[in-house]
Amino acid sequence: MLRIPRASRLHFHDVGTWSPCAYRLVALRTTTTTTTRRCMMMMTSTQTTTRKPKEEGSVASIFPSLSGSDPNLPPRFADLKKDIWTDSLVQSWRDVLDELRGAVEEVAVKGKDIIPSVHFSDLKKGLSKEQISEIRRSGVVIVRGGVPREEALDWKRSLMDYIALNGDKVKGYPDGNIQTRARTHPALLQTQRALLQLWHSSDPEAKLSLGTPISYYDRFRIRLPGDRSFGLSPHIDGGSLERWEDPGYRACFGAILTGRWREHDPFDAAPRLHACQDLYDAPNQCSVFRPWQGWTSMSATGPGEGTLRVVPLLKVATAYLMLRPFFNPRTSSSGLDDWVVDLESTAFPGSQMGKIQELKESTHPHLELSRTVVSVPRVEPGDQIYWHCDLIHAVEGFHGGQNDSSVLYIPAVPLTVQNAEYLRDQREHFNHGLPAPDFPGGEGESRFLDRGRQVDAQGEAIGLCALGFQRFDDGPSASAGEARAVLEANEILFPKIPTAAAAAALGVR
């Protein structure tokens, strides 16, 4: 938390890294089937309905360990395990544990050096096969050199000036003009496009354009030396129980849950479009498909200075997480190799209704988190870090450095029909100075001086498109799914204004 002397009651909460990516669209129903059906119906709607304002919330509201919520689940979760179970998972579990042993040792030996780092110029000319392989295996990447150092430092200075100018009206996240410029910076949008295209769609008809990044307004953090107030334990955003409970979300891990974990493709976007990641209408939830979470540094910071931590084992760690509820130690004194099938208990370790997925040594011991959670290497102002939406990550509990640790949370989000609906509502909130739809409500910046405007967008067309102020263009080589995504997104954002190119590509007149 940062306190500003010129405005004694101003404060920020560093919450950007924990906002789960989840569709917050329906209230809890008594059965999984009903809940999921309502969620999917609303996800596919393109009506210009007004979103219900978000409730107030904090880190404690979505972290089981911080909220003191009851870990016991209703009996239906034992039935859910039986419904999912197949005998092939026994051998798959053994195989995953064997794979984990070697992977854990590799991370323990290499430490932060296992995290891939590329230069922005590499992205512009195209990543090598080796670089792509390293990024996909670890699920995280540092991109250096995209934003000039002095420009990133100027963003921080301007944000501080903006805070001071608006005094006691600042209660949390200000998305002022500097944030607008940062979120539409050409280098950041080019980086996002390149990383989004590491994903693919197994369904060519899927309404998705991975080459079209859009802006998702998130928070920024300024963390002072000596701070101990904001350490986050290892977790994964995007809900918890929903991974098993929602059929659409469960399909994203279908290979794992049918005994074929090595065939799991964490970079296939197609099933993600049908996932409902928030069945419980939880506060502080992200309601877009966000393949890459990310932040851009506004300071020089490194390990031990309150930075990001990750478990750079995307595929095998995901497989372990998804299989973990079906196995338990034979006895309380059993070792890691003496586990048996558990289909009778309701336990989904680290998972609770309406919370994120937490992981601890006690709940997920085979991950050996004390050895596999590593702090990211040192970064400079203007460097970017992105991590896969399924990646286990955390935040250091203590900032032991000499200078502030400051970041802008800027993820990589593609154009989809559902994301376009959010972009439409975000644009409306932005125009009126209100908090973005996924964040706690209130008057926001509606009475602020010098708040962000459309004219602050950078990069001309690409920046305006990312903010939803200009129609998207699919281009001549777009697939049927991409063309449909662009057409429907433009209809959502600009009703009654047809896009000739997209319509022609689809044979629509």
UniProtKB/TrEMBL annotation:
Database matches in InterPro entries: Gig2-like, IPNS-like_sf
A Pfam family that the UniProt record links to this protein: Gig2-like
Highest taxon of source: Eukaryota
SUPFAM superfamilies membership: Clavaminate synthase-like
Signal peptide bounds: none
PANTHER family recorded: DUF1479 DOMAIN PROTEIN (AFU_ORTHOLOGUE AFUA_5G09280), UNCHARACTERIZED PROTEIN YBIU-RELATED
The protein's name in its UniProt record: DUF1479-domain-containing protein
Organism: Multifurca ochricompacta
